[in-house]
Amino acid sequence: MAETPSPTPVTVPRARRAPIEALDENFELDSEFVEEVATTLRTNDKEQVRTLVGELHYADMADLLERLDSEDRRLLIDAIRDDFNADVLPELAAEVRDEIMDALGFEDLAVALTELDSDDAVYIAGKLDSDEQAQIIGRLPQETRTLIEQGLAYGEHTAGRLMQRELVAVPNYWTVGETIDYLRTTRNTPEKFYVIFVVDHRHRPQGMIELHHVVKARRPTQMRDLIDDPELDVIPTDMDREEVAFLFRQRDLTAAPVVDKSGRLIGQITIDDVVDVMDEVAGDDILKLAGVRPQEDSSLYRTVMSTAQSRFIWLVLNLGTAFLASAVIGAFEGSIEKLSALAVLMPICASMGGNAGTQTLATVIRSMATRELNASNVVRVVWKEIFVGSINGLLFAVITGLIAYLWFKDGLLGVVIGSSMVANMIAAGFAGITIPLLLEKWGADPADSAAVFLTTITDCVGFFTFLGLATWILL
């Protein structure tokens, strides 16, 4: 990241909607608009560029920056530097955000961080390396610097890193009138807030009141009397972000207090941040199931070589399992030479088992993530998957056996592939649920490696049962 020769203060305007001509019917940036911006950037007409993008919502601005190439991104940042909206930064893909921060330079980026909510500022600062963090933090006002340093001291995926320091908290003995007067006169309230926290004399949260209850209540009413649920769900700073997301989903929360080890209220987590966590975790699990490591090679903006390099290790592991399945086939090489129909039919059994196992695996991993699968129902679910595999196995045994008979005019061959289909579908259902459970018990991420073990088992079982039965019955 380079120094900017003459730092310009960054002014963050209030978020505004994009002009309608910039959006298509799906509320996404129109391709023609993006092309018009790119063309104008190359003419070096900064005033026209600012006219085009001046009314864009920060999320649309982030979309625009991601659609431009690297050179056009730098030209756009140079054109809108005086009016750059810092809220754009958390919306960007990691690689694009790095380019934008580099184009801003240390001084302008430091000013931008002061305009962000504390949780977003900590998030952006956490994406910098240690040297860049030191350069940025050294340029921040003392209050912002302290908040960011405290936030970075928490684990990356904990509530402490996720929380927002800006909140509204009032003593439990205040009245509604005192609270409303305070909100009207103080400058310390967040720009947006949905709840008011009620605290005791030690600043420990006693309740959380949604704003509509406050504005409907009479002025003499004490705030403690508006608390609906005294069993407040408090979040410790070291709680994992996935635990936080589960709590919000279970209790239908819009906000929740975060407390330190002494129980004092130090921040809040709001639903918009939890939605981002849910989206990121779900996306990561999908990528892991496909053998793609999140945050490393999943981005569309990484270079060809870096993407290929990061995927190579996973493909090597898959190559090893493929050789294991081939070794099973090799053990029956003589049988395949004597009956060529075996070579034609053996991929069917293995692939059907793999597909059935993947269905079970995806369902189980999702159920584990949502806590629907637990110790109280795991045995029942295991038996359910075995029975599902048996039923589908029998149905497909009839179908494939009949096709094999009509194709090769050999009834025993149909019996062999049908029997193999039943065995492999049962094995697929059993493996699809037990593999992720065992991986979690051993401390591994089921979404990260379960698919490799599953396909290895279904391939080996499918090839072994089909070729083994064929050797025994037909040859």
Walk me through what this model shows.
This protein has 475 residues and is mainly alpha-helical. It has three domains: 20-153, Alpha Horseshoe (MgtE N-terminal fold); 169-279, CBS-domain (Roll), CATH 3.10.580.10; 304-473, Tetracycline Repressor, domain 2, CATH 1.10.357.20. It has 19 helices and six strands. It has helices at residues 31-42, 46-53, 58-67, 70-80, 94-115, 118-126, 130-137, 142-152, 159-162, 176-185, 211-216, 241-251, 271-289, 304-330, 333-338, 341-369, 378-408, 411-441, 446-473; strands spanning 169-171, 195-199, 205-210, 235-236, 255-259, 265-270. A three-stranded mixed sheet has the order 1-2-3. A three-stranded mixed sheet has the order 4-5-6. It is globular. It starts with 30 loop residues before the first helix and ends with a helix.
CATH superfamily of the largest domain: SLC41 divalent cation transporters, integral membrane domain
According to CATH, the fold-level topology of the largest domain is Tetracycline Repressor, domain 2
Strand % is: 5-15%
- Structural class by secondary-structure content: mainly alpha
